[in-house]
Amino acid sequence: MDLFPDGAFVRLRSRAISWKYLHADGDWAGVSLRRCGRVPSLEAVWRVEHWVHEGVTYLRLQSAAYGRYLALSGEDAGEDAPSGHLGLKAAQRDIDDSTMVNFLSWRWRVERVKPLKNYVRLRHFNRDLRANGRLLMWNNGVTVDFNLARRLSTMMQWTVHPVAATSVPLPFPAAPPAHQIPLQQIPLLLWRRIWRGRQLPVPARTIRHVRASDEGNFDQNHLNWRAFGIYDHSVFNLRTQLGQLQHDWNGDMFGFTLCIRPGLNGRLMPLVTDLPRSLDPMYIVVLRTGSPAAAALVYPVLL
């Protein structure tokens, strides 16, 4: 666990495909293997969380971009990987179910491949987190595959790169132009209606939100939280909307800090990226910028 301190940020690079890293996809569901780019994406950063069960410390990895956790997809049996991939699908999931079967979906054990080396296996029972696409590069999904014989395949090995942390918030993406039509995922046959300037019945995403005290306390039952619908993906617009709903709003667009709560049992993650493409409801905790709770938040350094 020395490569994964609790609360630290890391990137995981495939040892077999050394120019690609583990990414949380923008659909808020998938996990894939992609290049980091000249300016590393926040989607490639994961926050470490230790979880102790029956005296054993396990690992949970939370996306720094979207807040959800790296997990086995589906229920306890998992979901088969797409064609061309091996094993079961890996996914991003909330931690909102107290049953042990679902808790185990997020549970990983770290196994060093060689002493003093910084590449590891991430084990889910007798399966390992696996990269795909060594030969067919378009098969870039990440899966969880059986490793009963404890094979030494580098496709099941990950080099751990620590990411520095800071208390300085990351810059927000720019607000979209005022004339831009807010779109979710619209079928191709409807594009002609957009070009003709007609109004489209775009489905809304539900935002449930709660205000936290300056110390970070808030109502834990999200069924009691207020809700409204939004029609675009802009985090800038979302912060403005939520700011205007606060009783102490003074027109300062940066007066409040937003955090994603990924399920009843998930840790808060600062929201600094545009929202994922999924229409799943989002649970947002609103902190006053400058409060002790907001000042205690940490952010990865994207270098």
TrEMBL record:
Pfam (any one): DUF569
InterPro entries: DUF569, Ubiq_DUF569-assoc
Signal peptide bounds: none
Domain DUF569: 1-149, 204-287
Domain of life per record: Eukaryota
CDD domains (alphabetical): beta-trefoil_FSCN_ACP-like (cd23340)
Protein name as catalogued: DUF569 domain-containing protein
Native organism: Sorghum bicolor
